[in-house]
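Let us practice reading a record.
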Amino acid sequence: MYNLFKANTLRLSCETSIAGWLLLVTSCLLTDTALAQHPSLNQGVLSLPYVVSNEAAYSAELSIIPGSDPVRFELIAAQSLPLNNSLQSSAFEDNQLFIPDIDVGGLAYWAVLGLIEIGAGAATEFEVREFGLHAAVVSSSQLGLATQPQWQRMPGNARDIGVGADGSVWAVGTDERSGGYGIYHWLGGIWQRIDGGALRIDVDPDGVPWIVNDSHSIYRRQNGAWQRMGGNARDIGIGADGSVWVTSGGGTYRYDHGDWVGVRGSGVRIDVDPNGVPWVIDHTNDIHQLIAGRWIQRNGAARDIGIGGDGSVWIIGTSEDDGGHRIYRWSGAAWNRVAGSSRQISVDPDGYPWAANSAGDIYRGQ
């Protein structure tokens, strides 16, 4: 990696077939300064603050080569750094450069860049093998980080709440039933009791609830009845794009046309961002995000997580407080403390939270 960054030129070559990346690069030539903790693409410069390879660390800056098509970058600065396990890093291994967060105007992209084998003496080049969007950097379309929710006490009590991308709100109550606890739909300003029992609940973009009951079975509401979906889970999360994920003791799984497709790694709580990317809380309260098939650990610790249709990420932390545990909101680099405390949290399409505290009291942030 040292020789790679010390080369006279380091160029990132994109195939013309990935037109989206070309548009992304072209559109961000005049964006604002990014969060320093993340790689960023600003004013034509791709900044990589922390890259690890072979137990060595580096920072680097690459500049867009004007008029290049496919898009190329030239190395303009590189520096060796001390290793720091607490920093989120990009990684170069097996001839691939993996960048988990690239901040582009407040949106977060990930990319996998492959090293191109070229002749001796030629410029070092990469090509984009994969890239995508995820919720790690706070978008300007989301609620301002300085905005504190005004908590409104809602009727009823709940152990869990799920909010769909269409704004539909469902809850698991505190009344014991076969399968767990009662299931309720917020409709017309009241909670309407629905048959069945559950422990965990979430809602798809069409307003359809999915549940996990006390035997870990997964069900979806279809035509006024609960349909068994196969598999077993501890928790369920649904993204605004319709992606359904569950986590269990044996792994994490995505629903795909009637099948559950697994990835390594398990957890106890899960939710999904608008781009279908799952965030998981594991048995030790660590927070992980699945990016390009890799679990990226985020800082902090949590007991529950909720993600809104706007991509805003909220957690219930581990510090005890009246009503449960403290509430935090992701800034893109850190968890910002929010007034109030709770035991469970879900987030509506506009980024406002619904929470249930240790007494089961329900509150909605406005």
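A brief commentary: The CA atoms of residues 267 and 282 lie 4 Å apart.
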